[in-house]
Amino acid sequence: MKVLVINCGSSSLKYQLIDMSNTEVLAKGLAERIGIYGSRLKHTPKVGDTVIIEGAMPSHKDAVKYVLDALMDKDYGVIQSTDEINAVGHRIVHGGEEFSTSTLLTDDVIAAVDACSDLAPLHNPANLIGIDACKQLMPNTPMVGVFDTAFHQTMPGKAFIYGLPYELYEKHKIRRYGFHGTSHSFVSKRAAEMLGKDIKDTKIIVCHLGNGASICAVKGGESVDTSMGLTPLEGLIMGTRSGDIDPAIFEFLHKKEKLTIEEIMDILNKKSGALGISEVSSDFRDIEDEMEKGNEKAILTMDVYNYRVAKYIGAYAAAMNGVDAVVFTAGLGENNKDMRKDVCDYLGYLGVKVDEEKNNCRGTERDFSAEGATVKTFVIPTNEELMIAQETVTIVNK
């Protein structure tokens, strides 16, 4: 079975075509600047160089058309017809309480996803646009929705209920949902294999650390707590997001700076986090460069970041009454050895001990635990696209 995995952002579309008979990626790419001047498609076939295809993409439907044309191109394509695409798996950010598993995208399901748009206004509408575009161009191909929030639906009430009047949960479903579920699920399964244990007998903390970041406590293969909340704004400091703050800051900023709710939310989502503290960049590579120059704000940014990560790990070790492995994944987690070492230096009391030579790696799977460590530390590159494809095959075969 060949599965096309689609991940739509507000002005971008990432894709992979995967042959699930051997999990081989036949082609992958990115359509960017959709609806903006200068839109283009970067397409990389299994064999051959990346091709840059420039052209107007006023809508996501146009972008999907570019993707399909590239997949079928006589020079750099990998299929002859869309009939060879057996299913499409769509990443959907927010499924609310409605969806605890992946599901076929029927009209009723799409309506339910649309109803969750208030909970993810930057993500769900874009996901829906991509679904609609694919349905128009491939009306007879089964479509499956794979939800970022689904993996976290196993969290108990004590982990997801906020300290607000309960009627607000009953009325508006205000609660912790969590995100990056596809990544946390994939990585925790692989970590159990590396431990040589049945996942039902494991306690694993997954640190998905990129421009967006979250930590998840996975006990017995199920999410029991996670750092992101009602929205992806809660939790760790991120590239431009503030993470956890005192909610009274809203009123303080409103009074002192005369800011509206919309303006404050813009600050918290787009001008805070690593960018806000460092005043350099939201890209941690740029911050690393500034650290080497002695930039004190850049150094402070990484100190704050690493401290927050370590605190969450400690909290989740307590929540599970122990931990077998701490796993680092995503862009920063997979590639920044100094961050991993600094975080792990806080965790000696748990039995974490790092072998610095093994930790000297980027983007590769690695057990970097030192001899004598009683809690393992792993780097495991995430593969959300493969997980989405696997979920899609499972649902279609049902």
UniProtKB/TrEMBL annotation:
| Binding, substrate | 91
Q: Which InterPro entries match?
A: Ac/propionate_kinase (IPR004372), Aliphatic_acid_kin_short-chain (IPR000890), Aliphatic_acid_kinase_CS (IPR023865), ATPase_NBD (IPR043129)
Instruction: Tell me the GO BP annotations in alphabetical order.
Output: acetate metabolic process; acetyl-CoA biosynthetic process
Question: Any idea where this protein resides?
Answer: Cytoplasm
Query: Which amino acids does the record list as binding Mg(2+)?
Result: 7, 384
| Names of the cofactor(s) | Mg(2+); Mn(2+)
Marked site (Transition state stabilizer) residue numbers: 180, 241
- Which residues are listed for ATP binding in this entry? 14, 208-212, 283-285, 331-335
The pathway noted for it is: Metabolic intermediate biosynthesis; acetyl-CoA biosynthesis; acetyl-CoA from acetate: step 1/2
The name this protein goes by in its record: Acetate kinase
Organism for this UniProt entry: Natranaerovirga pectinivora
